Structures are given as C-alpha cells and as structure tokens.
Amino acid sequence: MVETRIADIAKHEGQEVIIKGWLYNKRSSGKIQFLQIRDGSGFIQGVMVKNEVGEEIFNKVKEITQESSIIVYGTVKREERAPSGFELLLKDVELVHLAPTYPIAKKEHGVDFLMDHRHLWLRSPRQVAIMRVRNTIVNAAREFFDKNGFTLIDAPILTPSACEGTTNLFETEYFDTKAYLSQSGQLYMEAAAMALGKVYCFGPTFRAEKSKTRRHLIEFWMIEPEMAYVEFEENLQVQEQFVSYIVEKVLEKNRQDLKVLDRDISKLENIKAPFPRITYDDAIKLLQEKGEDIQWGDDFGAPHETIIAESFDKPVFVTHYPTDIKAFYMKPHPQRPEVVLAADLIAPEGYGEIIGGSERIADLDLLLKRIEEHNLPKEAYQWYIDLRTYGSVPHSGFGLGLERTVAWICGLDHVRETIPFPRLLNRLYP
C-alpha cells in the first residue's frame, strides 16, 4: 500500500492506497456506504461494501460523523462519472478523531452564519475551489514578474505618511509619533525601481472605508509593479500581458475548480491581449447616452463601471482621467494638463476596476507643486521628493487588487469569499 493525495490518485489506478483526510459527507444504501472523503488536495468518493469488509468494519464506519478525521485504505478504481474520474473501493477506515455534530449542515445557511463559521466554511468544495484559484493567480503573478526581469521588494506595512491622503487610513501609535497601516506600497516601489529598474511588491493593504459594497474589503492584497524608464503606453501593454497570463494559467490549472464554481469558461478563454481602450471623455459621453446623470470631472461609481464594461467582452482601459480626481503623483498629459496619464482597467461582467495605474511625475518642481496643492506635509514626503532630485527618470506602475481579480475570474457575487478570513466593515471575527 502506498500513501498518496487525492490530487495524485490517477497515478495509482488499480493500486491499494492510503489517504489521510476527513469525512466530508456520507450516505448509505443498505449494505453499501458511500463516503465523500477530502484531504485538502481534492475530494473522492469511497465505496464500502458490507459483504467485502465484514460486519465489524462496516458498523464502525456507520458511526463516523461528518468532518471526523480519518485514514482510509482502499483500491483505486476508474469511475468516469466521478469528478476526479476515480473512486476508492474501501477495505478499512481508521478513525483519528470523532467530531461532534457539525454546525454547517447540508441545508441552506445565511451569510452571517457562514461568516461566523468561516474557519469551518473554508472546508466546503466551493471555498476550496476559490482558494485554489487564488493560489494559482498568486503563483502566476510571481511567475510573470520573474520571467520579465522584476525583483520582489517588500514594502513596509507601517508608514509615516499616506499614499493618497489620510481620509481612509487606519492610524496607530508608533511610540511617540503617529503611523498608518499601508494603503499601498507604490511610493516605496518607486524608490526601489530607481535602484533595481523593475520591481514589484505583493502584500496586504488597508483602507478604512465605511463601505458595504460587494467589491470592498477593509484588508486586501495588492500586487504593485513599478518600472523605471517606462512611459504610459508601455505600462498599459505590461498590464494587459500580465492579466492575460494570469487568466491563461487559471484555465490551464483550475478547470475542475471553475467547474465546481459553475464558471462560464468561454468568457475567460476570450481574455487575451490587446484590450480595448476608451478615454474618460468618451466614457462620460457613453454614460450620458445611457441616461446617467454624470458630468465631466465626476468620478465613476460601480454602476458607471458596469455600464462601460458592458460595451466590451474583454477588460477595458479607461484612460486620461481628470487631474483633479486622481492622486498627486500622476503625470499630467503634456498637451492636456487637465488630464493625467493614468488608466483604470475595468473587468467585464460587472466586476469593476481591477487595476489602477499611471505614469508618475518625474519633474521635481511639478511634484512639489502637486504636494502643495494636495495640502500634504512636505517633510513627510522628503524622501519621495529626493527621488526626483537624484537621478529622476520617467517611470510608471500599477496596482492589481487580488481579491477583485479572484472574484472576476471565479465569477463570484461578493469579494468576501475571495480571501480566507475577510475583514469587512462590521466583521473582525474569526
């Protein structure tokens, strides 16, 4: 007998194997018991026939409850009707720990109940599938940057100043001064790009926004590349290549998980660079034509982004936003200083912005002017100003929100399922 994982079961057709896991579910048909077994790598059905194992073993298994931890022994048999293509003909089951009545039954539970039991809800096939897709997206992102000459740089989580103003920052005491939980690693990546050329950070970020929408989390993960000597156009090309690569890898590695999620794979198969583009000016016209009460200079809300995305079957770049509604560090258009060389990438199917990016201001005097216009404390940004003093170059970057990307690729209704333990406006437990 060989010990294996359910994910590797195809390698052992006809062999006797040992699997260490948990009993996800069980049903009985007289003299046959059907055990749904999970081990973290997958799910498989185990079939136990009373006449083949004897009454003692059969009755012992009858007493095993849902989510009890077990070690099973059996022969791998091909079964085309099974999701994995195989099932186990069980010979014995060893009980490791007998679980009491499991709180999450097969009946429908409310969202609040499931979120209170998130530590257990994670075990369900749907949540396992989502976490696997998330894992592939993370690995694909790292692969993409590794293949394209980027260096991973870890940005600090505690910062002395804000990236985009202090209105939605978590403030904390840092000995005898104030500090903030990071809302972005971007400014630090600009410094790192001046040292290493092409860099990225990947870590948790925090926004103290009192928002309850299906797209918002209080704590979320961002992937933020920054590139020296890269201007606006090349920045967009990197973004569409990056997103295309991620989707390609998910389709390659997670088809079974997407099937569990009932995801329409054909919509993902269409996600290949290049992506369409629409200027902010034209987006405003489009929204007005659709009956939206919006004027030039207004920022887009979620309904606006959805309307824009409906005109395209791929992610779409909205470019050249008004300078007044974007961050202080974004470079103005040389011929139209009222707009910036920035773009948001809007996912299709109503999932909203998944990337925000721009070319950054490289000119010292202009940066100083912007800092003053935004009423930011110059002394707190002196290190950032130094980047324009000592060898300034054109540079660009962007940030991809991991959870929104997971929600889009998985086809989920809410971002709360995209992260193991979501932090929401009224939820800090578990």
Automatic annotation (TrEMBL):
Enzyme class: ligase
PROSITE patterns the UniProt entry points to: AA_TRNA_LIGASE_II (PS50862)
Main location group: cytoplasm
Recorded GO CC terms: cytoplasm
InterPro entries: Aa-tRNA-synt_II (IPR004364), aa-tRNA-synth_II (IPR006195), aa-tRNA-synth_II/BPL/LPL (IPR045864), Asn-tRNA-ligase (IPR004522), Asp/Asn-tRNA-synth_IIb (IPR002312), NA-bd_OB-fold (IPR012340), NA-bd_OB_tRNA (IPR004365)
Listed Pfam families: tRNA-synt_2 (PF00152), tRNA_anti-codon (PF01336)
The keyword Cytoplasm is annotated on this UniProt entry: yes
Compartments in which it is found: Cytoplasm
Keywords of the record: Aminoacyl-tRNA synthetase, ATP-binding, Cytoplasm, Ligase, Nucleotide-binding, Protein biosynthesis
Any GO molecular function: transferase activity
GO BP: asparaginyl-tRNA aminoacylation
EC numbers for this chain: 6.1.1.22
Limits of the Aminoacyl-transfer RNA synthetases class-II family profile domain: 131-430
Oligomeric and partner information: Homodimer.
Record family assignment: Belongs to the class-II aminoacyl-tRNA synthetase family.
HAMAP family in alphabetical order: Asn_tRNA_synth
Protein name: Asparagine--tRNA ligase
